[in-house]
């Protein structure tokens, strides 16, 4: 799992090495009060630490979220997401994961160019009527990998509880065919966070080294037509996958 260190242990456990672009030029992510389309993922309920990030993507049934494949394993039914979470507050409610879908090449061989997954979210009561998550939060379109040099914004929740998300806007570049960006502050829990560009999700922290080995450089799988195939399968609403336990990140 990406950067096996936690937010409260950054100084003790993370490596603050210089990026290829030069440490002086690398910005640092800032905290803010969140946005409705991005949520932390709680595997054991909202009274425990959240461990990954997911975002709402536009779909036919208004009930899908995107995250990293290495964030999900086994049967995920019953996990929780809290869109717009900050300081322990859940302004857009707490929603329950019903199923997860992962690409075949991730399921069979954990190919890191397919390190993305889609969560199907169960409906819930909202202000007196049954709603789907997208009806409450809105959604971003699913896009394809950004061109080198284009600016993306990544919104992420580092692992923790009663905290705030972070955000950073920087240009993307490529490392061994993986989209990459440099910004300090992305540690364990940021995996699955969306790379946003003009209302579209064009990547998620994951891919090479399950997102990165240091807190200042992050990666994504390269979104191509396969990501739309997964969206279509999830949108049909069939039985979800039993995702494999992720292997080592190679760091």
Description of the structure:
The protein is mainly beta and 251 residues long. It has a single domain, classed as Thrombin, subunit H, CATH 2.40.10. 11% of the residues lie in helices and 28% in strands. The protein contains 4 helices and 17 strands. The protein has helices at 10-13, 104-109, 133-137, 225-236; strands spanning 30-31, 38-42, 52-57, 64-67, 80-81, 95-101, 117-121, 124-126, 129-131, 141-142, 151-156, 166-171, 173-175, 178-182, 194-197, 200-204, 217-219. The strands form 4 sheets. Strands 1-12-11-15-16-10 form a 6-stranded mixed sheet, with no helix packed on it. Strands 2-3-4-7-6-5 form a 6-stranded antiparallel β-barrel. It has a 3-stranded antiparallel sheet with strand order 13-14-17, with no helix packed on it. Strand 3 (52-57) and strand 4 (64-67) form a beta hairpin. Residues 3-24 have low confidence and may be disordered.
Entry keywords:
single chain, 251 residues, mainly beta, Thrombin, subunit H, 4 helices, globular
Q: Any chance you could write out the topology, listing elements then pairs?
A:
Layout: H1 10-13, E1 30-31, E2 38-42, E3 52-57, E4 64-67, E5 80-81, E6 95-101, H2 104-109, E7 117-121, E8 124-126, E9 129-131, H3 133-137, E10 141-142, E11 151-156, E12 166-171, E13 173-175, E14 178-182, E15 194-197, E16 200-204, E17 217-219, H4 225-236
Parallel strand pairs: 10-16
Antiparallel strand pairs: 1-12, 2-3, 2-5, 3-4, 4-7, 5-6, 6-7, 8-9, 11-12, 11-15, 13-14, 14-17, 15-16
